[in-house]
Fold this sequence. Notes:
By secondary structure, the protein is α+β, with helices and mostly antiparallel strands. It has eight helices and ten strands. It has two domains: 183 residues, Restriction Endonuclease, CATH 3.40.91; 66 residues, no CATH class. The strands form three sheets. It has a five-stranded mixed sheet with strand order 1-2-3-4-5. A three-stranded antiparallel sheet has the order 8-10-9, with helices on one face. Strands 6-7 form a two-stranded antiparallel ribbon.
Amino acid sequence: MTAADPNFQKRAGEEGRFAQQMAERVLSGAGFEIGERNRRLKQLGVTVNFICRDRNGGEWHFDVSGALASPRAGLIRTDTMWKTLGRANVLAGAGIKRLVLITTNLPKPGSVGDTALHEAKATFFDAIEMVSPAGRERLRTYAEGRPQQRPLPGFWGPMDAYGAKLRRGGTAGADLSVPLEVTGDPLGSLLGLAVSGMPHRVKIYLPSQTKDGKPIPPSARGLVADRVKSILGALAGGCTSQEGKGSWVHGRFCGFPEAKLYLDSPHEDVPGYFPLV
């Protein structure tokens, strides 16, 4: 099939409309609210296929390309890719931050097209294959409208997505880790709460023995712990406690393994807090 085919333009138009219809179903299924379709930005000479809102009202722009009838459609086609990047560049210059490229086919990793897309990373937020389960899952996450939203790894590698925030190593044997304040906390989204990290913390240790080595009854420690949790909960919005065992290295309480109760809370709203030095 070539441009000389009298039916080429008609077929291309039909395939493009079908791709847009499928993209709309994918976006709606992910949780986006479709606001505008094929909005023409006359001052820029660009058409945006979909302008949507996530569950928190955040605005997203989507550029759709591709056809399901051909294995070499979407952003695999060089001409389609360059036209898409041209639109993305114009929209980025106009201040649109969250443009997602929705396509039926992404270029293979390491190909010329893939390299070109990655070099243009400043012009669009993410690139997603609409038939890909992983891509649809990313769309569902974006539709939740989490605070401090960044592109999720998928099309972008971890370094592309998180940059200097990415850390080598982490808990539970992880090779890479990212601070929670960067990724957002999914628990808050599930509960409908706004979750923020604790930039500073106050820790309180309740020992199991006095400075003279006399045991402190668990009931007495429990009463103190409940009182502290009540105060910190009222002042700082919450407090966690944990039983532990170790050595309290401070002053005369040094070197004796003992059971302790740890209480942890944000400190910046707790009057009278002083760091232990």
